[in-house]
Write a structure and sequence with these properties.
By secondary structure, the protein is an alpha+beta fold. The chain has 2 domains: 2-83 and 170-244 and 351-419, FAD/NAD(P)-binding domain, CATH 3.50.50; 92-166 and 246-349, D-Amino Acid Oxidase, Chain A, domain 2. It is 23% helix and 25% strand. The protein has 9 helices and 24 strands.
Length: 435
């Protein structure tokens, strides 16, 4: 039994759904396969969906700024009608606290070049604009059982504020929106079906094989498999020329009652990026706050070999570590005795920058290493992958002459060599989820 199509996209998360949408809009016949039961049930479901522009490179900032415009024009971007239930970008603003590994002057230079509004706050302004926050400097982040964790600070810090930042209120709904838009352009989604083989015709991909033996014939296959992407690459026999690797990492995001003054239902507080203490925070429904980590050295990475065997439950140790550090920033924040939150698995690139590229197997493409900091960029990731696939399939040598992606709202140009599988590691990277 075999099904034939132009493109198979493996993975129905926010990236895979965006790729399917843009390929369908470009005229490709698309089938999306996912081992899960529905849209966005992998790493997408554990995303905090933060919209920020603080990256260490002009390419990272430009893609985020372009994506912001997609989200603020979400219905038009999707071609959705007025009756469709759509996710929404909540523009609460993002407060990026000052830290040595993310120099403020680098960010402000990039923001000024692209016309991104920002405000440079000193510690007094930070305290005035974010009720309840303590602007003390604690750098570097420390374990909560380190005696130095409780040392009285002697300095304060300021922040960089971007008023257009915020978060997408429902990551799963946003993925559903993209999938519905893809379906309007003919994309077909196949769930509860695992890909177990990759078909070849000489030096070219020829489709995939599912666990039940069904073959899907296609001349293009796109790996958007999230935490399973490295496994899928191995299945396809690609990756020998990659200089950047991807690996699954277990993550937790916790939910607590928001500290007094920070947020209300009518006026949600800003997203706080606090690399000084190794946490980030954003408002959530019910006057609550989501708290996650920014991969500080004091909190070991939880690399895992098999995403299917990862512990799906939050842990007391990680909860206490992250929430206690957040309470150091917001003294009125209570650390509950019982952990509440979610655990998930991210697909992490070795330099925390995604790989959007072709591979050494003709017709086999990758949009991988995206977890943790690319949810907001999904609309543009879909566009640039569709452009890349279309032009490479028409004969362009992207490896030797990297394509430039022309942004549609912000009238810019991004060198896609920046996302190459063969790139050199970005020397300015923070080495964390912040990129």
């Amino acid at each position: 039994m075999a099904l034939s199509t132009d493109v198979v996209v493996v993975g129905a998360g926010v990236i895979g759904s965006a790729v399917a949408f843009e390929l369908g809009r470009a005229g490709w016949k698309v089938v999306v396969v996912d081992k899960g039961a529905g849209f966005g049930q992998g790493s997408t479901s554990s995303s905090s969906a933060v919209m920020r522009f603080n990256y260490s490179t002009s390419e990272g900032v430009a893609i985020a700024w372009e994506s912001f415009h997609c989200w603020t024009n979400w219905a038009a971007h999707l071609g959705a009608d007025d009756a469709e239930n759509l996710a929404e970008l909540r523009q609460t603003g993002v407060v990026m606290l000052d830290v040595p590994i993310a120099p403020k002057d680098r960010a402000t230079t990039l923001f000024a070049e692209l016309g991104i509004p920002f405000e440079d706050w000193d510690s007094e302004e930070l305290g005035r604009r974010v009720p309840g926050i303590d602007p003390a400097k604690h750098w570097p982040p420390k374990k909560i059982d380190d005696p130095r964790f409780w040392d009285a600070p002697t300095e304060t810090l300021g922040a960089l504020f971007t008023p257009n930042g915020g978060f997408v209120d429902d990551p799963m709904l946003a993925t559903q929106n993209l999938a519905d838009a893809a379906a309007r352009h003919g994309a077909r989604f196949v769930f509860k079906r695992e890909v177990v083989g990759v078909l070849r015709a000489g030096r070219r991909v020829a489709g995939v094989v599912l666990a039940d033996g069904e073959r899907i014939n296609a001349s293009v296959v796109v790996n958007c498999a999230g935490p399973w992407s490295a496994r899928f690459n191995a299945l396809a026999g690609v990756g020998n020329d990659f200089t950047i690797t991807v690996r699954p990492m277990r993550q937790e995001v916790h939910q607590v009652h928001a500290p007094e003054g920070y947020s209300t239902e009518d006026r949600p507080g800003p997203v706080i990026a606090d690399l000084d203490l190794g946490t980030y925070m954003r408002p959530a429904a019910g006057n609550s706050m989501l708290i996650g980590g920014t991969e500080p050295e004091c909190e070991p990475f939880e690399w895992i070999d098999d995403p299917d065997t990862s512990n799906p439950h939050r842990t007391t140790g990680r909860f206490e570590s992250q929430v206690t550090r957040a309470a150091r920033r917001f003294p009125n924040l209570r650390v509950p005795s019982q952990a509440r939150g979610i655990a998930g698995v991210y697909d992490v690139a070795s330099d925390w920058t995604p790989i959007y590229d072709r591979t050494e197997l003709d017709g086999f493409y990758v949009a991988i290493g995206t977890s943790g900091n690319q949810f907001k960029n999904a609309p543009v990731a879909g566009q640039l992958m569709a452009d890349l696939i279309g032009r490479v399939e028409n004969g362009h040598d992207h490896d030797n002459r990297p394509l430039h992606f022309e942004t549609r709202y912000t009238n810019g140009s991004v060198d896609l060599g920046f996302y190459s599988r063969k790139r050199e590691t970005n020397p300015n990277s923070s080495g964390t989820v912040m990129g």
